[in-house]
Each structure stands twice: as C-alpha cells, then as structure tokens.
Amino acid sequence: MKKICPSITELQAFEAAARHSSFTKAASELFVTQGAISRQVANLETYLGTPLFMRQNNRLLLTEAGEFLLEQAQEALRILVDASNHIVSGRGQRQYVTISVPPTLATYLLMPLLVDFYREHPSIRLNFTPHDHQQNFLANEHIDVAIQFGEGAWPAMISSYLVGKKQAVVCSPAYAQACGLQDVSRFPDATLLQHFNVPHAWVQWFRERKLPVSTAHLGPNFGQYDMIIAAAKLGMGVGLVPRCLVTQPLRSQELIEPVPTPELARQGYFLCVRKERSNVQAVSTFVNWLMSLDLPSYVHTQSRPA
C-alpha cells in the first residue's frame, strides 16, 4: 500500500537539515549519523518527486519546494510536540516551557537560581534545547523562550533586558602582578582574550581610556565566554566579560579585576519571548519569575569578596 504522507522521521530529518543548512549538524541534533539524515531526505525527495535541497559553493540551500515544505513541516511538528506534551502533562493546560540559553550564562548564573523556581512551580517542566548564537532561533518553532546576547532587537519577539551590560576586566592575580595591570597604561602589553561574537569589545575599551588601539596585543579568539574565563584563570591573558559570569571567581579571588570598567556595554543578555506564546500560562509564569529576580542587583551582591 502506498503511504499517504511522509513519515515523521523523514520530516524531522528534513526540518533539522534545513534549519541548520547542514546534514552534519542535523545528525548531531537528532543523535543519528549523517548518512541516516541523507537517506531520510532522499526518501522524502523521492516520495515528493522533486529536489528539496541544492548545493552552491559547498553550501546547502533550499529549493522553492524545500522552502514551502519547511514552513509547513515546522508547523506540523510543533502541533505534534504541543499535543504530546499536553497529554504527557496529564493536565488541562500546557505545563512545559522550551528554552534556549547560552551555556555559559546557564552554568554560571541561571542553574543555581532554578532550584527556587522548581520549588515554587514543581508542575512546570523546563526543556533546554541546544543553543547556537548564530542560529535564527525565530525559525525554530519549538522554542518558546530564548536568552540571547545582543542589543535587544529581534522581530516577532518580546525582548526584555536581563543582565550582562556591566562588564569586568578579569585575570588571575599572578598574571595581573606579572604584567602590572593595576596601571591601565600597561594593558597594551597584556594578551587580550577575545570573543568571536563581540570582536570590537577591546577596541572600544581601549578608546574609552585613550589607549593606542594599534599597540593592543590581541590574543586568541574564543566562541564561548566560559572558555575566556577558563583561559584567564590559567594565566593565558586578560578577559573582558559580562560581570554576571564571573561572580563566583571574583568572590573566591580566583580571578581579580585589576582596573574598574564603569561604562556599560551596548550588548547584554535579553529574555526573548515568542509573541504568540507569551500568554501561555507556563511560559508567562517562567518569564514573570525570571524578570522578578532583578539579576543586576543579584550579581552585584554575589560578586563581593567572601
């Protein structure tokens, strides 16, 4: 008997590959091999009788048919996920929230606070989806709430500033002493640890202090702030990071702040809520709880030396 529609497995493989523009990343997300993704997409193309992808300069692009199917597949999969979670919850209303959070922020700030949330709201399940700073999270229909690092402008989302504009220059005590970093004029001699997604942070910091940018010793680039923090602890250089990520290392004096950074950065962490989900009770409960914490004040208290 001829099947009357594609299988869920085929649609999941196609949706993930289209969202990531990569069979490899889709395979990693779905915990299967790249070959399995390729076969599922090929089966889907055979069933539909038309190509869904084309390759151009080693890039995976959607055809017109692929773009149409992606929109429909994401909506269909979202409906199935919502229905499944509704049944699993055993309640008359949705009791889960799907969240995308940068791993460094989750580890250093959010996770310690979630104990209180679960104590207050034991029936709400939080599902943490893999976070990719470069991904278009608006295209991922499964995400209800995202914490994004940026300037706060994301279409179709309600965004509210959380924390992160307050910066800190940090390094190990030994590195600060060796380089004489209590004197700001010595910073051009230090190795400056950089973040890929904030490439001009040190340049702006130097300009604020009227230091010659041309003499800055720009060191290695990292894709996550936790890597910069780890490198700073090991004495590899000095990092410019959101203060909210280094409260505990500053408190224990594993890291120190050799000079103050009073000015606020343009970018920070924003809580982004999909507009059409903002009135879902579980989503609004989590959002209201997180916004009520006054994270900047919490960070200030936690970063004081013990």
UniProtKB/TrEMBL annotation:
* UniProt-recorded Gene Ontology molecular function terms: DNA-binding transcription factor activity; sequence-specific DNA binding
Q: Which organism is it from?
A: Kerstersia gyiorum
Q: Family, per the entry?
A: Belongs to the LysR transcriptional regulatory family.
The record's listing under Gene3D superfamilies reads: Periplasmic binding protein-like II, Winged helix-like DNA-binding domain superfamily/Winged helix DNA-binding domain
Q: Does the keyword Transcription apply?
A: yes
Pfam families, sorted: HTH_1 (PF00126), LysR_substrate (PF03466)
Q: Is Thylakoid there in the keyword field?
A: no
Which superkingdom is the protein from?
Answer: Bacteria
Keywords for this protein: DNA-binding, Transcription, Transcription regulation
Recorded protein name is DNA-binding transcriptional LysR family regulator
Q: Which BP terms from GO are recorded? A: DNA-templated transcription
**Residue span(s) of domain HTH lysR-type:** 6-63
